[in-house]
Design a protein that fits this description.
alpha/beta; Rossmann fold; five-stranded antiparallel beta sheet; 11 helices; 18 strands; globular; NAD; ADH-like_C; Alcohol dehydrogenase class-3; S-(hydroxymethyl)glutathione dehydrogenase [NAD(P)+] activity; zinc ion binding
Length: about 325
């Protein structure tokens, strides 16, 4: 089978999966958060006999990986593997042989990854071992509405594309790197703003541009100050601000209660709100029909051994998505 490993699982049985407004499956969350597998509480990765923890329930910076069945979406066999970032998978029962393969190991935070050979054990019950072919570093908007998107990386561009497809009349891209404005316009932004070009808070700038603010705002960076700015330029009375970016552990967000009392909604989303196993295949189908701009997100293709160079390009804002291949 051709599959996409998803960091957000879907079991279809838990309270969260059954609720129409949630995708926060809890079937394996307690174990993926610890970097181990549910069947025995252990990792399937090791180096020189010492265990390595899994990452985000997928660990796709490895030529082979083991994931929970709840974290795998089966897709169209005709989809190009290097574009949709998929792998080939097979279920396990704990039998079989360990596989030696290349992987990128993180020994310390904020340090370059160590590309080396690791051991991947056979999958246990309810698990799938996947050969990763390629990996990558990467809410309903009403028609006629106005949207502001903070952060014009791949996530922000995806929001812009989705907003355009939903029929948004005005889409404002916000970023401190003006070099990103051209591609944002290609994806559907109607205008772009650089906070550095103004001597007032960006939320005030957008409120003045739009008369009371935008119907929807999206924070796609993970900066708590920007999260506040995005909320405060949501339209008074009905504006919704969505937090997508992930802030560093321990950080908190704040605003004046008046911002919420006057009708703004502050919410967050994970995995785009998609129920992974049942809806990710639909996204692949959309790509195959030519209705999404997936190819435009891929700005670089590099060998897996160059993974640290790829991260440097991302950090410098010179890359949207870099596909890393093991061949």
């Amino acid at each position: 089978d051709h599959v996409i490993p998803c960091y957000q699982a879907y079991c279809g049985e838990c309270k969260f999966c059954k609720h129409p407004e949630s995708n926060l499956c809890v079937s394996v969350r307690a174990f993926t958060g610890k970097g181990v597998m549910k069947s025995d509480g252990k990792s399937r990765f090791s180096v020189d006999g010492k265990p390595l923890f899994h990452f985000m329930g997928t660990s796709t910076f490895s030529e082979y990986t083991v994931v929970h069945e709840q974290s795998v979406a089966k897709i169209d066999m005709a989809a190009p593997l290097d574009k949709v970032r998929t792998g080939r998978g097979a279920r396990g029962n704990g039998q079989g042989k360990p596989i030696e393969c290349k992987a990128a190991v993180a020994w310390e935070a904020k340090k370059p990854l160590d590309v080396r050979m690791v051991t991947v054990d056979p999958p246990g019950p309810g698990e799938v071992r996947i050969k990763v072919v390629a990996t990558a570093l990467c809410h309903t908007v009403k028609a006629g509405s106005s949207v502001a998107v903070f952060g014009l990386g791949a996530v922000g561009l995806a929001v812009i594309e989705a907003a355009k497809r939903a029929g948004a009349a005005r889409i404002i891209g916000v970023d401190i790197n003006a070099a990103k404005f051209g591609v944002a316009m290609e994806f559907g932004a109607t205008e772009c703003v650089n906070p550095k070009d103004h001597d007032k808070p960006i939320q005030q700038v957008i409120v003045e541009m739009t008369e009371w603010g935008c119907d929807y705002t999206f924070e796609c960076i993970g900066n708590t100050a920007v999260m506040r700015a995005a909320l405060e330029c949501a339209h008074r009375g009905w504006g919704t601000s969505v937090v997508i970016g992930v802030a560093a552990a321990g950080q908190e967000i704040s605003t004046r209660p008046f911002q919420l009392v006057t009708g703004r909604r502050w919410m967050g989303t994970a995995f785009g709100g998609y129920k992974s196993r049942v809806q990710v295949p639909d996204l692949v189908t959309e790509y195959m029909s030519g209705s999404t701009l997936l190819d435009k997100y891929i700005t670089h293709n590099m060998k897996f051994d160059q993974i640290n160079e790829a991260f440097e390009l991302l950090h410098a804002g010179e890359c949207l998505r870099c596909v890393l291949t093991f061949d």
